[in-house]
Amino acid sequence: RPLSRRQALLLGGLGVAGTAAGGVGLVWTLAGRDAPVPGSSPVQPNQESSSAGQLQVELEAAPALVQLAGRQVSALAYNGSVPGPTLRLRAGDTLKIRLVNNLDQVTNLHLHGLHVSPEGNADNVFVPVEPGRAFDYEYRLPADHPPGVYWYHPHHHGTVADQLFAGLCGAIIVEDPVPVEASAERILVVTDTAVDSAGTISAVSPMERMMGREGGLVLVNGQSNPQFSARPGQRERWRIVNACVARYLRLRLDGQQLQLLGIDFGGPQDPEAVEELLLAPGNRADLLVTAQPGNAVLRAYRYNRGSMPGMMGPGFGQRAPQEVPDSIALATLQVSGEPAAPPAAAVAPQGLGDLRQSVVAAHRQLTMAMGMGMGGFTINGREFDAARTDTVVTAGSVEEWTIVNASPMDHPFHLHVWPMQVIEEGGREAGTPRWRDVVNVPANGRVKVRVAFEDFRGRSVYHCHILDHEDLGMMGVIDVR
Ligand code: C2O
Ligand code: CU
């Protein structure tokens, strides 16, 4: 297919580096900017799928004019679209990403939730990629990598929230070993942003950073309330990413039941019927939706995540409760036509294990706190410092962490690389093993998790996934040795 001028320029510029990096030559997939993948719906992001155990893609981070909810917006985008392409992988695959930084600022790339090495050229958040430079990431997924929906976004401390708010994110799917029967699979990347009258992304105030910014423009795949259609009785797979900087999504589908396969680590498990589902920033949901006649609207209902210390009353960001809409329509499923034959019922369950009986090598407490003014966003009393190591863990051990929230605002706690099993939440033991890579710790609450520090060693991070809080310092360094 013909290359655009920009693609040709990029190829020219990358030839030397590509060969030097490993002698592989130029076999990069240029993530499609023009033609949607055949068969994918126009409201779905483009997809790049691995074959023969490998996926090579180029992600160019650059300013781009994109259509967001029908408006022309000067955003930052991967390969010119918000969200960027969906990367589809299988356990055991090798993923090679050339990140080309055509922003005017430092960036880098983090594959959120993937169980891959934090070292070297893999998921290394300590590597800065300077403007005008490219960086070759190489990730190897273990053969038993959990299936599910993951995502990618920049991770250069101090700029993460700004870059995500401007549009830099995309979804990753790790395929199920045994596919779940569904008539359609929908990827729903939820972002929010704020755009001024000139079509530029609005700057945020210091107070909005401290609260965690919420943009008034809430989008699914860059669109406002996209419409899907299905026939009655059809079962669809919905895979939702909360890629908002700070907005919690309290989701309902018009009172219809959702069948929850999993949060974060999805994949086939015994589906659980739920009316409502809370996705903190960074969380993903893997759902089955059975189409009932009529229209079903997926809505995000308002959720009170608390306020700053010393501020009065319930907190909805900086807005009074009456200014916050009761709900926002995210997407609509239009159901009509001939009823479809019901799907084969079975979803082959695939457990992710259970650490409740394992020997715990260490108990730790991590306390997230915030104060007014500078220097108040801490974990165990300290702001992030890339040069310091806060937590040293023995490779191969299982640890139990109590995550304490010593503030009147919720904080979603995220640990890179190693999945967390929630042991205790809201003062009660979790009934079934629930795995997360982001676990919400409610205002003045606590959560207990267990983590098996398996497979990978090296330095990585844990942090609040209200990414303004992470940028302000609510992040610590872990070293697994
Ligand atoms: Cu989704 Cu450390 O991030
Ligand atoms: Cu926070």
Question: What can you see in these coordinates?
Answer:
The structure is a single chain. The protein is mainly beta. It folds into three domains: 5-174, Cupredoxins -  blue copper proteins (Immunoglobulin-like); 184-335, Immunoglobulin-like (Sandwich); 362-480, Cupredoxins -  blue copper proteins (Immunoglobulin-like, Sandwich). It is 7% helix and 40% strand. It contains four helices and 32 strands. The chain has helices at 5-20, 160-165, 206-211, 467-472; strands at residues 29-30, 47-49, 54-68, 71-78, 86-89, 94-101, 110-112, 134-140, 148-153, 170-174, 184-193, 217-220, 227-230, 235-242, 249-253, 258-263, 272-274, 277-279, 284-290, 294-301, 327-335, 362-369, 378-379, 391-393, 398-405, 411-415, 420-425, 428-436, 438-441, 446-452, 458-464, 475-480. A six-stranded mixed sheet has the order 12-11-14-19-16-17, with no helix packed on it. A six-stranded mixed sheet has the order 23-22-25-30-27-28, with no helix packed on it. The longest helix has 16 residues, at 5-20. The radius of gyration is 21 Å and the shape is globular. The model is unreliable at 1-41 (pLDDT under 50). The structure holds CU-O-CU linkage and copper (II) ion. Copper (II) ion binds next to loops.
Properties at a glance:
Immunoglobulin-like; globular; Cu-oxidase-like_N; binds CU-O-CU linkage; six-stranded mixed beta sheet; disordered N terminus; mainly beta; binds copper (II) ion; 3 domains; 481 residues
